[in-house]
Amino acid sequence: MAVAWFLSFLVICNSLHSCAVSASVSTRPISVNIGCAFSLNSTIGKVVKIAIDAATEDINSSPRVLRGTLLKLRVQEDTKASRFQAVIETMKLMESEAVAVIGAETATTAHVVSHIANELNVPLLSVSATDPTMSPLQYPFFVLTAQSDLFQMAAIAAILNHYKWREVIAIYSDDDDGRNSITTLGEKVAEDYGKITYRAALKPDASEDDITSMLIQVRSEASRVIVVHVPIAFGSLVFDVAQVLNMTGNGYVWIATSWLSTLLDTENRLPIETHDKFLGVLTLRMHSQDSNLKRAFVSRWRNLSSSEGSHDLPGLNVYGLYAYDTVWLVARALDAFFKDGGNITFTKYEKLYKRVERFSSFRALKFFDGGKLLLKKIEQTNMTGITGPLSFTSDRFLLNPAFEVLNAVGNGYRRIGYWSNYSGLSIVPPEALHQKEANITVSSQQLSTVIWPGDTKETPLGWVFPSGGREFVFGVPNRVYYRELLSRIDESKMFIGFCVDVFRAALNLLPYPVSYKLEPFGDGKTNPSPTDLVRQVRADVYDGAIGDIAITTARTTMADFTQPFIQSGIAFVAPIRKLSPSMWSFLRPFTPQMWGVSASFFLFVGAVIWVLEHRVNDQFRGPPKKQVVTTLWFIFSTLFTAQKEKVLSTLGRFVVIVWLLVVFIINNSYTASLSSILTAEKLSYRWRVNATDGSLRIGYQRGSFLRHYMTDEYRIDKKLLVPLNSLEEIDKAFADGPENGGISAYVDERPYVELFLSTRCYLTIIDEDFTTFGWGFAFKRGSPLAVDISTAILQLSETGELQRIQDKWLASKACNSLGAKLQVNRLRLRGFLGLFIICGASCLLAVFVHFVLLIRQFRHYYSGHRRSSSRISFLGILQMFLLFLDQKQEVKIRRKRRRLLQGVSNAADD
């Protein structure tokens, strides 16, 4: 009995284990339903339907994909492009227990149906609802298996930045597809300091009259760069009307989103007139990598489309490629789903039933129990399809988004480059650049040559002054003094001066006419604040500001500035005070180091001359005292070229020539410096002191940015800064002095200071701060005039016209000698170091050559004594060498001659 009970227990345990194992293993069904929710008569829908059918057939014919399970495609009824009907038909597909629905052709449909998909846990996959706001946080069961418009708009912004177009007009359909994408475009353009100047919204069912009215308004705008983001259904109609309004010719830039490339790919037989209206238009297309899989699918496309039984066979567009891959994505996710124990079961969704209790048509909707697991497998799928590698990022975007940039020409288009978020614009396919380090710089961005509207290769300016438009109004400071810069003629609105001449010369270089008028800014009694004028530009009171406006950090946050047309800086001015002469003034030209090195070289060169001349020159011989005095006298007399001693040796003459050059330069430098010191005026400046010094007061031009600059940069107390309104006030403040409420110094921008000092000889510049400040013209944010006039200013500078205008108005008139130098610099050793090195090297070289020759001569002298005497000790040789050095070279030569004569006479006797 015990054995029987034990065997029964084992059988029961084994059966329980088998049940447990079978419960954890998925049972693959014979078939699985997937839905296809596209409008079968739309440009996208008819291509997507063929591609999905082909993918379903390929998957079912391969037993290795779903391992015996077949995909059954449930297709919705044709919605005739009705968005409401598209929502209803998609819901009907979910009633058929579809585990996934491929559809939501438009963003409007996707927004509605995604809420239902969330409730039923049915993944909704789309290749065409590319709305960038479809967030996986809000719509967790919506999966975009194509490129989001987030990246398409980034590509368009990159194109705009590549061609330096800062203003753009957007034409779009006023629905979820259009609004959200154009909002994203505005954000992307703003990253490169551009903006959408006009948003032309069209009703989703816009008529030709609506489009005409809209384009007439667009034509009146200044920008000629137009982005068109509309449904394919009436995108062509927009260009029909634009062609009638002569807006597709020279000067215009049209950028169509992917709807145009889809139209050109799908419609094989476009009318001839269509080619003209699309000529030069740029469009984008989702990029799909070239591969054997893709080429094979493209080659079989005609057979696939023929099987549909339609005589009007559609061409293969990129949505068909992505739809084909999407079906394979679902199949691979289902295979992983089954491997992980997933089961295809649907249950009655009680919460939904309570909500739709009175609507019997919704009672067939069921909750997909394995929906979350299938969604997870879809997100984790990593495959290679006919479009290339397909996987998702953490934000559920396709990895490595990329677009092709196309240029419509003739009866089709030509590819001019690519865009990817990895490398930006390039003429090389993105997959090739992924193997290299990311490099998105201005210089790396490239596109091939474009044929623009009007059949021209010249890049359009992108902006014109529209005919019939209003005049530009520019504010001009109504200056009271420094009228050479700006001067209002009487009470009129006519201005003359340096700044106005530069502005008019720049306008003359623009390739288009600009109608404008100048408005005075200020009361005419005090100089207005340039900062206040720039604020008026920001507030749209003026289109720009023309005048002596320094480009500062604070002002650049309010407006766009041109290239500086004059470099500025800060100069400090103070009264001149005579320097009291001193009994030691003659020592001031040289620094102590300079005096020390100069004296040392006098002695060094004198010693060298003595060494070179001692054996050949009687004037450098005799008693030691006489030789020292002679050498010192000779070397110091070279200062005045009054030396009476002659130099006989060649090496000595070489050294004297070099030394005389050194003396000449030092002598003249000393004379010029001493003359300047004895006649110059000492500058009275004590402005860089602590703020506790109550006697220090510095004046500045009222309304200038220098008040904040002095307090921030130099930490000068605000109480010590005195605002002044006129030149007369400045003169009076200097006359009063700081003791009587006046000023010790005055600070202003360099151009002002030069004009101010031209008639005031009692003042001079005491210090300068060469800042990066310059004067430029201010314009409203995003105004293309800022860029174009900057280019014109550079042209004026290159041709010399800018300097001519500056010389005309700002040339110095007087007092350009006393205040020309900030201070007299003493002559320092560093400025003459090279000269002393040359002199020292020359002396050492001469001494070296001299001693080499001496040693050779001594060898002959020593050999003669050695034959006539016994062995000589080292001490004897040294004594002999010293005696040889002291001998005059002529004695040695005379002895040599005597020996030669004796030898000749002895030979004659023999």
UniProtKB/TrEMBL annotation:
Membrane topology: Multi-pass membrane protein
Molecular function per GO: ligand-gated monoatomic ion channel activity
Signal peptide as annotated in the record: 1-15
Annotated compartments: Membrane
Bridged cysteine pairs (disulfide): C761-C815
KW Amino-acid biosynthesis (keyword) present: no
One family name in Pfam for this protein: Lig_chan
InterPro entries for the chain: ANF_lig-bd_rcpt, GABAb_receptor_plant_PBP1, Glu/Gly-bd, Ionotropic_Glu_rcpt, Iontro_rcpt_C, Iontropic_Glu_rcpt_pln, Peripla_BP_I
Domain Ionotropic glutamate receptor C-terminal: 473-812
Bilayer-crossing regions: 594-612, 624-642, 654-678, 831-856, 868-885
This protein's GO CC annotations: membrane
Keywords: Disulfide bond, Glycoprotein, Ion channel, Ion transport, Ligand-gated ion channel, Membrane, Receptor, Signal, Transmembrane, Transmembrane helix, Transport
Top-level taxon in the UniProt lineage: Eukaryota
Family named by the database record: Belongs to the glutamate-gated ion channel (TC 1.A.10.1) family.
UniProt function note: Glutamate-gated receptor that probably acts as non-selective cation channel.
Identification of the protein by name: Glutamate receptor
Originating organism: Kalanchoe fedtschenkoi (Lavender scallops)
